[in-house]
Model the fold of this input.
Amino acid sequence: WLFRVETTLNMFIYSSSFTYFFQDNAGQFFSSGHTNNWAVLVCTSRFWFNYRHVANTLSVYRSVKRLGIPDSHIVLMLADDMACNHRNPKPATVFSHKNMELNVYGDDVEVDYRGYEVTVENFLRVLTGRLPPSTPRSKRLLSDDRSNILIYLTGHGGNGFLKFQDSEEISNVELADAFEQMWQKRRYNELLFIIDTCQGASMYERFYSPNLMALASSQVGEDSLSHQPDLAIGVHLMDRYTFYLLEFLEDIHPASKTNMNDLFKVCPKSQCVSTPGHRTDLFLRDPGSVLITDFFGSVRKVEITMETINLTDPINAVNGELQKETYSYVDQLPVSEIIHQKPKQKDWHPPDGFILGLWTLILLVFFKTYGIKHLKHIF
Amino acid sequence: MGLLSDPNRRRALISLLTRLNTPICLVCYMAGVAWFMGLAFEPFTLRTYMSENAMGSTMVEERFPAGERALATGREFAAHKKKVGGMPVDWLVKTMQARGLEVFTQSFSRTLPFPDENKERYMVKGTNVYGILRAPRAPRTEALVLSAPCSPGDNNQAVGLLLGLAQYFRNQIYWAKDIIFLVNEHDLIGMQAWLEGYHHTNTTGMDWSPLQGRGGSIQAALSLELSSDVITSLDLVLEGLNGQLPNLDLANLFYAFCQKIGVLCTIQGKLQRNDWDSVSGYSHAVQTMMLMVMKQASGRPWGDHGLFLRYHIEAATIKGINSFRQYKTDATTIGRLLEGMYRKLNNLLERLHQSYFFYLMPSLSHFVSIGYYMPAFGLLTVILLLRALDLWVQLATPPTRTEDGVADIEQSSPGVLSVLTPLVISHLTGVALYTLPIRFQEMAVEHFPVSETEAVVLTAIAVYTAGLALPHNTHRFLSGEGTEQGWRVLKLVAVLYLAVLLGCTALINFSLGFILALTLVPVAAFVTPHIPKVLSAFILVILSPACTLLFSVFFFQELQEMPVSFQDGWLLYLSVISQGILDHFLYGSLVYPLIALLVYPCWLLFWNILFWK
Done:
């Protein structure tokens, strides 16, 4: 029996350490402090020769969906004039790798802002939440103070600005102010900002709100270069930074523990020709402890417990026969009520003569106080 | 006080101007000529580059496979052409329809003002055949044109290649613009009829049937001239009507594809050389540039593309040249080059406008833009302005008379009549030069044993020479009216008139303006009644527009390495004059009216001044 006690003791220790193990992991699950994930993916270019920007955005969209963020939590803004462009030799597709390996357009892409709706105003309204009441849910960023948001921008940019569809620009100051508005309205817990344009680092220079981490594909004065030309389609398919970002993300799965420091190493100068940059001074946690899946995936928080919970029985056992209730339908249109209507009750107003008398009294009191001679002037 | 309002400084400035006028004029003239010659020097030029973002690089996969079949179609076309004795309209319509195009024809007719001896035609009647390849998914708002002229005898391979490309293009789904495949008869006349019908304009008085099918606004056009099965090089022709040039991006596109596919490409028929620092290399570049200047100055369209430019359609002609070189290019490669160019033009979202419209090309890979070549012309015009200022100063200061005691005031301001009369008479002579040759050709043919063309040309020369006798006749009208002031006023007016005229011409057609300036500015600067008459009369005639044209003809032949003897040169000169007059009446070229109505009277004014009494 000693042996049995020993085994039971071992099992006890084993199960308690198990519990400790799970509780440790459970603690780790809550280290980031967010409960839901959102993504705002914006491609700011239109026209056939900017094919690569749409392919960039769609590739990030695919990765983010694969890692768990559902379409309802992704706001995708694209000009969306690539797949059905008259010049596309493969209609209804957008490829990101040459030799047409991967069609990132697919069957289930949901573009929330398309065509001419991709404007600076719409982008800022999505971020700050100042949308008209008629805006559908799919076009809103319904984040709260426990949301981690990934924002990805791509297109043509310059020193301090990003061009939106050939007619307007957003400046880095505007973007920083938008993020500050988001912070003050508690619309995010942590925010990861990735930008793949020329001179992208200038866009995050002006951030001043807490919990922002930013990555850019090139420094001020450098151009971000495109990666793959496809001769059959006749355009460049992807930009370098996003291409290597995508390769990096292909290795991430929902349970991976890769952290942000690895993301900063994506696309060194030898591959990208431009120098990618990042900014972490506004971020409160150490980037080494931030998981990629904190922003790119939507990992459900799971709390493991060993307790049993008693659920009350919803079905009441009735002693005796079951009561028979008579059921009847509610009148869809209460015709009897309409035909035999009661007179409508009007609101009560004081009689008109009363109001006239009241005003006369006021006037008389006025003129008594200030002298009757004024009355003579009136009459 | 300001520089010009302070009388002392003003006097100093004016005296400087009058003292140094001649030296400054000489320096400016030499500087202008030197600047112009320096334009061809390679370090002063820029490399060509693609300016249009939408066209990008040559990143496209060309897969045209059917060069041999295209040549076979060309041979069939030649056979049918010979059988019909003109343009085989029915065969072309059937063939284009078999390739899936929407085919339409247009008939046109034109009676030339006088017979064209170069092309041996007088009453021209013909048919254009064109097929439209509709873009599979795009609205019919934009179009591209590929054309090949149907000439009796050659250019069959071009039509064959056109039909082969039509078949290949029809199988592709990536066309965003309609492509119009045009075979025009009687080259430029047919093309003019087609363009007028397409754009619903009628500027030259031609008769044509309206077009039944249209394709939207044309963004770019290419014309093909290919007369052999294999070629050694492709030549690009850019100069169009009135010296207008297509957007440089079209030439850049052609050059980029030539480099990608590895075809030898030339401009002005001259190969590119790499040794720009040697004398022969530099002279080669100068020759290429001078050829372009000559061609642009003539104001005639040097290919079927020349007529598109007036409608703001960028167009160029590609000629296949088969010379004695080892490396030959076959029709499939040419087809691939054209396919690549059309795929890139397909990507355009707007008309070509990012690159230069005014440029000179000393070689296919280098260009000189308007900002670099205009100062050469500006330096020549400065001479005219300096002379005008000098004359103004002379007119303003009264002449000092120290011989007589009594101040003999010869300040009778010259009557308006004495200045106006030469002006009016010169312009009337110009009008005569413009109208008489055509109008009196029948009378001339009756009285002289010449053909109509010769009659027209010789009448023109006769009127021109008759104008030389004018000053004597003018003075019969105004008895003893000429004064010292008179000729100065006339010269001032003439110099300013010439400056404005040359300035406007150079803006539109730089080459024409520059060549005229080269010869007329010395005339304007140095002519006075007091220089030795015989010598200066001779020089004036040498520098007159007609002789400039004669020398240009000889020079042009030299540049093309086909020098001519004097008799041949003279006949060539006569044919150039007749072609110039025909161009004006057929296509609206402005060189002939410009010379006859404006430049020639201006030169006559200086002739008048020379013989001022």
